[in-house]
Structures are given as structure tokens and as C-alpha cells.
Design goal:
Helix content is 42%, strand content 16%. It is built from seven helices and four strands, in the order αββααβαβααα. The longest helix is centred in the first third of the chain and has 18 residues, at 2-19. The protein is globular, with a radius of gyration of 18 Å.
């Protein structure tokens, strides 16, 4: 089955990435049976908390297509995407997401110490009561960038 083929590839990429000092994650973006984006977790190698496999694969795919629309593409990941990667997938309107290892599997069966384990429960709290408090401070012109966006894109 095609999905298994691509997931097996991401798992192999993730294993190789760990051997090179990276994190245990890899991802690919596929369009029409062709890989148009790849990524491995480079967070610790690059000292970049945004260097997640899925983000790097999505960036590469968007560059290859000269578009942020990946609706006719599929994202395959060795692990269930985190909230940041999921956000990028939603922004790119990726068609489907398939993953090999769930968050629960990684936490429970593989003892993977993931700082995001508490993310989802934390997000159900009021913003100011979260682990990292979110504090809104409205300014006189806080909506101005959005008004400008709408004006520029003739949505107003």
C-alpha cells in the first residue's frame, strides 16, 4: 500500500537522523506520487525549536510549488505532528496527514520525554492561567494590520 511505503520511508529517515544527532522525527510531502518536500528534526542540531521535520518538509514543498496551497498533497510523518506542525499543515491546507507513531505511543511505549505532552491540556485553560501565560494587551491600533490586509486584498 502506498501509505505504508511513504511511512516506512519517514521512519527510516528518522532513524538515520537520530544516528546523525538529530531528533527522532522525519516527514515528507507527496504530490501525485512524487516527493516534493522532505524534512528531519534538526531542533538540537541547529538550536532552532522550529526546525521540526514537518515544518521543513512543508516549507520545501511550498517552495517547490511556489504556493502555500498543498491541498492536493499528502503529508507523511514518522510521528504524530505537534501543535506547531499541525498549524503549518492547516495553513498550507495539506490534503491528508498520515503518521506512523502517535504521541501516546512515543510517550508511553518509547518513554520519549516530550515537553509538549502537557500542551493540549494547558490550552484548555484560560490564556492567563497557562504554563506560559498569554496576556493580551490591546493597543489603539491592534487591529490595524488586519484592516490593512483586508484593504490590500479587497476584503473590506
Amino acid at each position: 500500500m502506498v501509505h505504508t511505503k511513504w511511512l516506512d520511508k519517514t521512519v527510516k529517515m528518522a532513524i538515520e537522523n537520530v544516528r546523525k544527532g538529530g531528533g527522532p522525527f522525519a516527514a515528507i510531502v507527496v504530490k501525485d506520487g512524487e516527493i516534493i518536500g522532505t524534512g528531519t528534526n534538526l531542533v538540537h542540531l541547529n538550536n532552532d525549536p522550529s526546525a521540526h521535520a514537518e515544518l521543513l518538509a512543508i516549507r520545501e514543498a511550498c517552495t517547490a510549488l511556489s504556493s502555500i496551497d498543498l491541498s492536493d498533497c499528502v503529508l507523511y510523518a514518522s510521528g504524530e505532528p505537534c501543535p506547531m506542525c499541525l498549524g503549518a499543515a492547516y495553513w498550507s491546507t495539506v490534503g491528508n496527514i498520515y503518521y506512523a507513531c502517535s504521541k501516546a505511543d512515543a510517550l508511553e511505549d518509547a518513554n520519549f520525554d516530550n515537553p509538549l505532552a502537557e500542551f493540549f491540556p494547558d490550552q484548555t485553560k484560560e490564556p492567563e492561567n497557562r504554563e506560559v501565560p498569554f496576556i493580551q494587551m490591546k493597543t489603539e491600533n491592534s487591529l490595524a494590520p488586519f484592516h490593512e490586509w483586508n484593504r490590500k486584498n479587497m476584503k473590506a
